[in-house]
Amino acid sequence: MADDGKSRLEVGQAVPELTVTPDKYVPHRYAGASGDFNPIHIDPEFAKGVGLPGNILHGLYSMAQVARAATQAGGGDPRALKRLSVQFRGMGRPEAEIRVTGTVREERDGRVIVDTVAEQDGNQIVRNAEAELAI
Amino acid sequence: MAEAPVGKQYPPFEYEVGREKIREYANAVGESNPVHHDPEAARAAGFRGVVAPPMFCVVYSAGAMGPAILDPELGINLMMMVHGSQEFEWHEPVVAGDTITTEVVLKDVFDKNGMKFYVIESESRNQDGQPTVKGTWTEIVRGG
User: Whole-model pTM?
Assistant: First the structure.
């Protein structure tokens, strides 16, 4: 295949890693952007009152980081991302690095499936993620 | 407890996509690709206007999901609910100025490991009737 500016995605190959450290106020900005103002995401005192270590990231924010990593692996065009399924486990916290890694599992009909996880401090916060990219 | 109303449909929800809302969302999640911010860059890349990042679908779908999650007939205890898993399948890109209509149906309810699982499916279309995203949302209620 001619060089089309995309990195080649071959079965068994790791895709470029994405790292991001959401700052203290990311959950507030994400709440405003998404409309999800559940206090467990934006109010540390409330969160502690219900047994959490502090306010936690929105799961769909973490999923958006997986989507970003997958889109990047697909060459950067948002149209490349055709499907993404994830499981939410554990909880993401602000002010700690999230690392999204993935490996190409299979290629079929012009699409690749990338197995992906997002982890933070050794815990998987998004697991069994499966991204389907058009190539 | 009454049988869960699997197959129940909820009212369609209409959302008008604004350029500044796309930018606000893109900034919140760290999407720096100019196609999500700049109309010229978006058009140069073949989009009709500033294009929403794929996961922006949660913004325009949320209003359709609310009535299902809060449906008294389902009786979901929000304090015990966690978002278990999520799948999206994308079709036509969504750009600033689009009007997206989302319809939601309760697809399945089942018990597993002492928890109750609610599977809700959403389908969104733009003003031309083209599908933009199909979502499968699995909510888990502990002790449900």
Answer: 0.95
